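Re: the pair you flagged

First of the two:
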Amino acid sequence: MKRYYRQQIEDLKNTYDEFAKQRQIDFDKLLDQRLAPYEEELYEKDLQIQELRNKQASFKEEVIEEAKASAQKEIDEHDTQINRLKEKVDELGKQLSKTQSELRGDVGEVNLLKKIKDAFEGCGDIFTTPARGFLVEI
């Protein structure tokens, strides 16, 4: 009888183990069934996130290129303005140089005229400058 009870206990134990294994298998299947829609949704969300990251990177590149183009345009405009101002400075420098030469010549003429008048003072001669530039009476 003891053997009989031991056999029954062993059978019950085996049945319980098989039942527990089957319950685990059923639980895993049910879990997979319940998680499948969420896993699919998660996969779709991952794809959307990747697509947004790609768009963000593309947008960032476009903004950088637009900023570079805008900055280059501004630099080109400033370079053009600088070149125009350099030309104007050169032109004014030439005019100043020419004017200074003319002034030096006119001053030299005035000095020469004064020296001639001083040298021939009392002779009754009248000396005048030509009708260009400054007209000076001494």
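Second of the two:
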Amino acid sequence: MGNWREQLDQLSAIATLVRESTATPVSDEVHRNGRDRIVATHTTHRYAATPVRRTTFALAAAAVLVGGLATWQFWPHPLRYEVRGGSGFEGPYVSASPLSPAELLFSDGSNLQADPGCRLRVDETYRNGARVFVERGTTTSHVTHEKASNWTFVAGPFEVHVTGTRFALSWDPLLEEIDLRLLEGSVEVRSPLAQGPIVVRAGQRFRAAVSSRSLLVSEGEIAATNASPPPEAATAPVVATPPASPGAPPAAINTKAAPRRESWQELLTRGDFESIVVAANARGFESCLTGCPAGDLRSLADAARYTGRGELAVKCWLTLRQRFPSGPYAAAAAFMLGRTHETRNQPTTAQGWYETYLAESPDGEFAAEALAGKMRAVTTTRGPASAKPLALEYLRRYPQGVHVKTARKIAGLE
């Protein structure tokens, strides 16, 4: 009985080895040596109680091994890549020299070019994409489009989510500025400067600066505000012209449909902020504040902020919280009010709004930014010692967050 229990334990150990082997690609030589070692170890003198038991166990071990190797062969593996040019270091770190570019070639056909002076880091690869940090400079990328593609490019606090496209992405870590030009396809940009992802399409350019809290989406070198007329322009009614005289045939009726007017959310998504403000002004700002639906108020608030109309943005956020206190935009409005007051050097008021957001949406989309904002506000008003518990909480909840360095400094860990 004891021999069978020992055999089962050893068989379980073999299965564990096989499962581990399926997760990491190995060479043919390692496969061959490992197979010989397992068979030699577990089918000879250690289990020679009876010929029947030895044969049964050997066959079972071989079946498990063959099944595991077959599983590994067809299991989807992370993308592989090679680096041409650059620093010559092995691993995920790629640094192009000041005089020549470097190129990353991925096994799915995607390629990234690091322009001279650019510095990249391939943080992780998946079977259908990768996560790449642009630490400095410009990269021109061509991402192959496949089903369920999963590519992310990170530049400071900005994340560019890609399914398949060509684009040029620049990041200046000193000025904390991003410049993104779409050559083909579309991407989604997430950042602390916007309440949700911003879609950037072919021919558009996305620029933002963290220090000035500014953001702009333009059509190439031409501002997107010139791309279309205001959405609230009047639509001419369809009218039939009466006959010129009795008995005369009527004139043709104008049946041409007027073009559909874009919603404010659609205008916001493609960066046409000025058209939203112009439309709200034509309707009357006070009328919008008292009568616009919640979605339009949020779009107007963002458009006002992006075009430098801070007071109008604040009015929209306060109105959202007053008119729609239990709606999906109320907590987000609290966060934006906190951020606005922080940029105005009003840390006490900012802290209050950040706390409101965290109370209403502790795990919301801006939770990490709100906690970091509260940490900064407390540091300003009461000093690092009072902010240390907040810094430790941030490090615990967001160990890979964009404010880790600040949190570690406040916590006294650097």
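The two ends are 59 Å apart (CA to CA).

-B.
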